[in-house]
């Protein structure tokens, strides 16, 4: 190969590498911008407990809380308690909503006279645990949230969750 062809090949390789570098940087910048834009309305939630079989959730941020209804899977800060550290969120399902009648008979929970589940008397470590006691209409802007897993720590124990403590609603799960 002649020197001029060799130099031309080297020059083309340099341009090719520069192009690949610029292209890679543009792709990275695009994904950062795309991620930032998405993070304004959505965030990724992870479930490390046994409350739900799904472990990854895409959650729409709080603006949707005016649309909440029974069956929605939500991401919320529970009321202060001895089991969930302050600031740690839980993923639960809304099972009884404002205006519905929540009754607790013994350890059995009912929403509009439909049986939901039973509270436990011992936690997963064998310690005694008190359950939430309530009989009446769920007040405006409050929700009873739970998981149907027997050892779930939910509204059966920490009570109703106010709308302002709900930070997002699941729009996708896996």
Fill in the keyword field for this structure.
serine-type endopeptidase activity, alpha+beta, Umud Fragment, subunit A, single chain, seven-stranded antiparallel sheet, four-stranded antiparallel sheet, 2 domains, elongated, protease, 31% strand, 174 residues
Describe the overall structure.
- The chain has 2 helices and 11 strands, in the order αβββββββββαββ.
- The protein has helices at residues 3-39, 155-158; strands spanning 42-46, 56-61, 73-76, 90-96, 101-105, 108-111, 114-118, 135-137, 142-146, 161-162, 166-173.
- The termini are far apart.
- InterPro entries: LexA/Signal_pep-like_sf, Peptidase_S26.
- This is Type IV secretory protease.
Beta-strand fraction estimate = 25-35%
| The CATH C-level class name of the largest domain | Mainly Beta
Q: What gross morphology would you assign?
A: elongated
Name the poorly predicted regions: none
What summary fits the major beta sheet? 7 strands, antiparallel
Structural class: alpha+beta
Distance between the termini: 57 Å
Question: How many domains comprise the coordinates?
Answer: 2
CATH superfamily of the largest domain: Umud Fragment, subunit A
What value does the average pLDDT take? 83
Looking at the overall shape, the CATH architecture of the largest domain is Ribbon
CATH topology heading of the largest domain: Umud Fragment, subunit A
- Number of distinct beta strands: 11
InterPro entries: LexA/Signal_pep-like_sf (IPR036286), Peptidase_S26 (IPR019533)
Keywords: Hydrolase, Membrane, Protease, Transmembrane, Transmembrane helix
GO molecular function, one term: serine-type endopeptidase activity
Protein name: Type IV secretory protease
